[in-house]
Amino acid sequence: MSLVTIIIICSTLFSSCQEQKMEEKFDWSGTLSAPQEYPIEVYKGSLKTSDFTQHFKNWGIINTGWGNQGGTMIVGPDKKAVPATLEISWLSFAENKFYEGKFDLPKEKLTALFKQGFIDPITKEKETYKNIVIGLAPKGTVVVWLLSTGIQTQVARFKAHETQIDIESVSSDDRYMFDKSYAASVLADPMIIRPEIKEKLNAEGYPSATIYEAYEKKYSWSPKLELPNEQATFFAFETCNGEKEFSGSADNFKNSNRAVPYLFFINWKDNTGQKFTAWLALTKDENYWKKYKNGGISKLPLDFEKSEIKSVFEEKLDTKSASEIIARVNNENTDVSLVIKQNGKEILLKDVVKVIGKN
Q1: Angle CA 325–323–144, to nearest 5
Q2: pTM as predicted
Q3: Which of 7, 104, 342, 355 could form a disulfide with 323, with the two C-beta atoms 3.0–4.6 Å apart?
């Protein structure tokens, strides 16, 4: 081997080592998500970095609600490089099908979001994301979000393909997933498919398998808060594509392309310092907050596919014009109405389930 060849090899190795050494690392862990009506179980899956792999095997059955994390598992070093690839294979119980795919993740976008972080409106300190959420929906839909308390941002979307797995290649520990009766037993389990979900499915059937693709559609809108003489201290909302935003004031939200929202949460105080809170869910389900508020986790309403706000965005608004969704507090601080305003016209939303009170 010539001296020149040795120098080139050493130079290449040095550059590679330097690149790995300089790779930025963050404190994150991966987790899974799936719709309430469409439970899934991962057969094999992992997030891979240059020096670490997080596996999703043996995570059990997931149907926490679209965008909601299915638990976390603290593994590996405290700080890890941004994952470069996602490999995933899962069983969709309602469809009784397996899907699989290998995807290159947008490392530059992930790194930029981790570095940028956000200002926590309560502590006023800079924070960053803590979880990478992998959402698995019907028809092989795969969505990747970054999550921290109060904020969730979509970073990628992929399409897995339906697959047939050779049972002879499956280990004895995993063969239960391929038993013909397994999917039926999971869908019949009231601890997995809760009674209110089963009731809806029996009455209306499953929502369209493509609905989670339709929920991706975005419109130009921004939230706004109208108070009599009070001061806002916190404003948050969640959208049907699994994203979440929050701020210390609605004035901080810029007009942007966003999916249709299903929930608003507002804190404000009056001139005496008395604090008030409002939880607003865009659904006809009067029991929505009884189901979810005490658990601390909001979920996409089961009737959202046919919700009033979804039809307003799709049928009554000009898609070429920006709009505002106004949360309007009355003078007595006892009620909050939601109004969509566009081009000088207002539409009052009627299907809003509210919890309002002093804090």
Answers
A1: 75
A2: 0.91
A3: 342
